[in-house]
Structures are given as C-alpha cells and as structure tokens.
TrEMBL record:
Domain Protein kinase intervals: 143-406
PROSITE patterns to which the protein is assigned, alphabetical: PROTEIN_KINASE_DOM
Pfam families: Pkinase
GO function terms (MF aspect): ATP binding; protein kinase activity
Descriptive protein name: Protein kinase domain-containing protein
Lineage: Eukaryota, Sar, Alveolata, Ciliophora, Intramacronucleata
InterPro entries in the record: Prot_kinase_dom (IPR000719)
Length: 483
C-alpha cells in the first residue's frame, strides 16, 4: 500500500495506556471539557480520493463515548468506523493535559471529536498530516501579499523561504464553503490549482494555492484579446474535460462563467484554471434558493430557482460563455483601464440577452459564404455556432465532448500546421492533459489505439487517439489510490 504510515509498536503502547483510563469517570470528565456531547457536523462524506496517508488503531472520544477504533486518514477525510469526516470543515488543534502523573496528548477536530496519543511524536505526525486540510489562522504571519493579479487574486510570498504562491480571497458570506473547500482539497486535475492551505480572518477565507499567473477571460476580452478558432476550441474543450472529471466524482463547478475561467495568454495552449467554485451535494427536494441567489450575480438569470444545480447547469453556463466569447461586442474592447472589471462584469451579466436571431443570422451568412459583421471577430464556423445552440438547449456532456466543432477545428489545424510545422490542436490539448511522463507513455500506445471502436469518430483517428488518451489519463490515478 503506497504512501501509508503506521506505527504498530506505538499503537500497542498507546492502546494499553488508555485502556487503563477508559473506566475512569474523572478521565472522561476532563475529556468532555474539550468537546460537545453530540457532534454538530455531518460525518457521511463520500470519499473521492482513496489514497491512504495514515492509519492507526487509536483511542478516540466523541458523542460522550470513549472507545478504540481504526482511524484512516485520506486526503481531507478521516474515516473512523462507519464515519467519513471531512477535515476542511474543522479547525484542527493539538492539546495536552496531565492525568495520573502522565501527559496525555490530544488532537481536537473543532468541538466534535478527540484523538488521544500517549506519544508526542505520533501526535505531531497526525496533527500536521490533518492540519493541511483544515481551516488555519494567522495568514499574515506566514505570507506577504506581493501583487494583486486581478480582483481577489494575489501573488504572495512565503516569508520564511520566499516561495511564490497564489491567494484567492473569498468572502465568508458565500454559501456552502465547507463543501466547496472539501471538493477543492479532494480534486486532482490540471485545471484546478492544488491547495496548500486555507486560512481565515474575521471577514474572509484565503485559499493558498500553487502559483499561477493569468486573468479571467472576461478581463482579457475587455482588454482587446483576439482569439483564433483553435484557441477558443482549446479553452472550451479544457473546460469540458474538467466537467467530465467533476461528473465522474459526483460533483460540479456551480459557478462557471467568464469570471471563473482564468487563462494564461503567455502559453502556446492558452492554459486554463478554474476558480470560484460553489458546490453543495443537493438532493431532490432541497431548497436551492440561497444557491441561486448567490450565483445569479455571476451568471445569466435562468428563471429556474427550484432547479437542482449540477453538470447540466454547468453545461448551460458553458454555452453562455461560448456565446459571450463568440459575440463579444467590439466596442467593449480595450476598456480595462477605464472601469472596475468586476462591477462591469456584474452589469454585463445582468443585461445579457441571448440573441438567437443573431446566432441564426450568422449561420445563414456563413452557409452562404458571405462576410460577417466586423463587430464579431470570434465567429469562425457553422459548427461553432451549432455547439452554442446545443449547449444552451441542454445537451449531454458526452455530446458536447464529441461535437463536430472540435473534430473540424482539429482537422483544420492539422492540415494547416503540417504545412507550417506548428503544434496542432490535438497536441495542444494533449500537452494540457498529460504530464511529461504520461505523455511519453501515451505516445507508445498510439499504434494500438487506431483500431478501437468509436463509431462517431472513426473517420478521424487522430481525435480518437486524443479522446482515448484523455480517458487513460483520468483513469491512471486509480491505480495508485487517487481515483
């Protein structure tokens, strides 16, 4: 079993020590001073990552009971018996006290549960392993704000070793933050920045992640960004791949839009990351009013306040995003120094109306090979416009991923770049999807993939190869307990 730590000799010693105390009412009274008699958080979380970080047979106390159980630490989840406890909803603290002339070492998850250790070394091992997933304090003691990259997103420096990170500041008023933080801790995807820690102050949470330089695609558009068709297709395809990953892990983004797609124009692929998730595992019949009230300031109003959000609503908002990019008005370009980007975005979304007549007129013009309105620089093809209509009419994730636009664009890039000797769309997406090692492995599989059955794309073996490689990439972590 990989990446697993356990200490059997210490376990036996710890168990024997606390076995002597379990029948002591005085010992239980001391422990009860640290926690409530009934836990307040939900402990039925569904594991997304099965990697085991630590496992131990420990003495624990919760709900007034002192008992011994196997404790298994996964990324962001502590499993105790039938309970799966999400660590991102707790502040993790270490404590100690003297009992019968012996020091007892504790770890407390909020006011709900205690883990008991006789050995300080073992306590420290578990404490720091769990603390990385918990809510922490004193951000300013550890980090220094260096530069605001865009509103709410900063470049920061670790004061001790001068390492660079990014910090995303989130208002505490945002709903469902416990589940959102849990999702981010448990995701392993190149379009989601790896969390290094989540800190809080009186008004905000600060998510510290790997460093990333970029800007929201909305900011880039009002700054005059001009995209090629292959670049737009690459951005949309990367988002779809992320949505498939989330869907496979029973999750969704929840707040997809031009504000939450961060692009890096300095990379040949226009790599993306996604921020501003709003996630909660709603069930049929749950009240979603608070959710829709929050995201409505970022998204186009759909008049479906009772709808349960999910991948289907993400796909609809992806259609809105593709419509915005495709028909972004020329007069809004190069306004970035004159306005508050976030306020302008809120107003833009409030006023946004999907003009289906404009889409249909553009389809007719392209079909007749006529020149389009110069105001719309990102209208390239019939299949691009068709995908907008499909996404807005609630197509499936599979239909979106297999859409003809990606096939056509990849073929255009292939024929053009074979003459130019430049990276094509297939390679762009492959490079985004794979690490160097995974990409090398995928190359050796190419000759075997051509014979796989895929009726919708048999005519395009290079795209078939791309799709299969992406599937291989997404399945690979399961082999090492990262599924």
């Amino acid at each position: 079993m990989q990446n697993v730590q356990g200490c059997s000799s210490k376990t036996q010693q710890t168990d024997q020590t606390y076995q002597e105390c379990r029948n002591s009412n005085q010992f239980k009274l001391i422990l009860n001073e640290f926690i409530h008699l009934q836990h307040h958080k939900q402990w039925n979380h569904q594991l997304r990552l099965t990697e085991i970080l630590l496992y131990q047979y420990l003495t624990i106390m919760y709900d007034g009971n002192l008992l011994q159980e196997y404790c298994i630490l996964h990324p962001n989840v502590l499993s105790i018996g039938i309970h799966n406890i999400q660590l991102s909803q707790y502040e993790v603290k270490q404590k100690s006290f003297l009992f019968n002339n012996k020091i007892c070492y504790l770890i407390a998850l909020g006011d709900d549960i205690l883990l008991l250790f006789k050995d300080e070394e073992l306590q420290q091992l578990w404490y720091y392993s769990m603390k990385q997933f918990s809510i922490m304090k004193f951000f300013q003691r550890k980090f220094q704000l260096e530069q605001e990259l865009f509103q709410g997103f900063y470049k920061i420096i670790n004061k001790k070793n001068h390492e660079q990170f990014s910090a995303n500041i989130i208002c505490k008023q945002q709903p469902y933050l416990e589940h959102t933080f849990g999702l981010l801790h448990e995701c392993r995807h190149p379009s989601i920045l790896k969390i290094k820690g989540i800190y809080e102050d009186p008004c905000n949470y600060i998510i510290v992640t790997d460093y990333y330089e970029g800007e929201p695609i909305f900011n880039a558009l009002i700054g005059g960004l001009q995209l090629k068709e292959s670049e737009i297709a690459s951005v949309i395809y990367q988002i779809l791949i992320l949505l498939r990953y989330l869907n496979d892990h029973q999750a969704y983004h929840g707040n997809l839009g031009a504000h939450s797609v961060i692009i890096n124009q300095d990379t040949i692929t226009i790599d993306i990351i996604m921020i501003d998730f709003v996630y909660f595992p709603f069930k049929q019949g749950d009240d979603t009013t608070q959710y829709w009230n929050w995201v409505s300031q970022f998204q186009q109003k759909r008049n479906k306040d009772s709808e349960i959000p999910g991948i289907h609503s993400d796909l609809y908002q992806l259609g809105i995003l593709l419509y915005m990019i495709t028909f972004f008005p020329k007069e809004f370009s190069r306004m970035e120094n004159k306005i508050d980007n976030q306020k302008f975005y809120f107003q833009y979304m409030k006023d946004l109306h999907i003009d289906y007549d404009l889409i249909n007129q553009s389809i007719e013009i392209l079909a007749e090979l006529k020149s389009l309105n110069e105001n719309y620089k990102h209208v390239f093809s019939l299949s691009q416009l068709h995908l907008i209509k499909k996404l807005l009419s609630q197509c499936s994730l599979t239909d979106a991923l297999n859409h003809q636009w990606f096939i056509n664009t990849q073929q255009k890039c292939k024929s053009h770049h074979q003459r130019q000797g430049i990276t094509n769309l297939k390679t762009i997406i492959e490079q985004r999807e794979f690490s160097d090692e995974e990409y090398s492995i995928s190359q050796s599989k190419q000759s075997n993939i051509q014979n796989e059955n895929c009726e919708s794309i048999d005519e395009y073996p290079t795209l078939q190869y791309l799709m299969r490689n992406i599937l291989d990439y997404e399945k690979a972590p399961c082999k090492s307990h990262h599924c």
